[in-house]
Automatic annotation (TrEMBL):
Species assigned in the record: Haloactinospora alba
Protein name: Uncharacterized protein
InterPro entries the record matches: NT_sf
Superkingdom of this protein's organism: Bacteria
């Protein structure tokens, strides 16, 4: 990401925060976590998985439609740049468990990278393959905790 632009200054993140969804009832999925970790400099949209109050609020903001997988419903906002969904690969993850296992970055909830890696491997699209490589490079670059050696007298 451009070092001059913080995560919260990104136009899509700003648009999401303007929705004022309850932060405990959604998680940013799709490629959003790659943006948050600095793995990608840009994303064209945000996938926001919601439950309960966040989903109820989202449904008041635009027309409801069916997402392209597993009977998930969605509301497209900001000309489709924000896709608010009521599930994320439900045959793999329960929506509550998915949201509860979020990673918080800059006070925003994101799906963990291991989950991003799992669904991108499942989808296997060309853009997913590039993201898989980038995630794996990022994870292998991450510093390991220091090794603790027992003290010897």
């Amino acid at each position: 990401m451009n070092t001059q632009l913080t995560l919260r200054q990104h136009p899509l993140i700003r648009a999401l925060t303007e929705l004022d969804l309850p932060v405990t009832d959604y998680v940013i999925a799709g490629s959003g976590p790659l943006l948050a970790h600095g793995i990608r400099d840009e994303v064209s949209d945000l996938d926001i998985v919601t439950r309960g109050p966040a989903w109820e609020l989202a449904q008041t903001m635009g027309p409801l439609s069916t997402a392209p997988w597993e009977d998930v419903q969605r509301v497209l906002l900001r000309r489709g740049h924000l896709e608010v969904l009521n599930g994320w690969f439900p045959s793999t993850w329960d929506v509550d468990e998915f949201i509860d296992n979020r990673v918080v970055i800059d006070d925003l909830p994101f799906a963990p990278l291991d989950r991003v890696l799992q669904w991108k491997r499942t989808l296997g699209r060309a853009k997913d393959l590039d993201d898989i490589d980038a995630i794996l490079r990022y994870l292998t670059r991450s510093p390991l905790p220091p090794t603790v050696h027992p003290s010897h007298p």
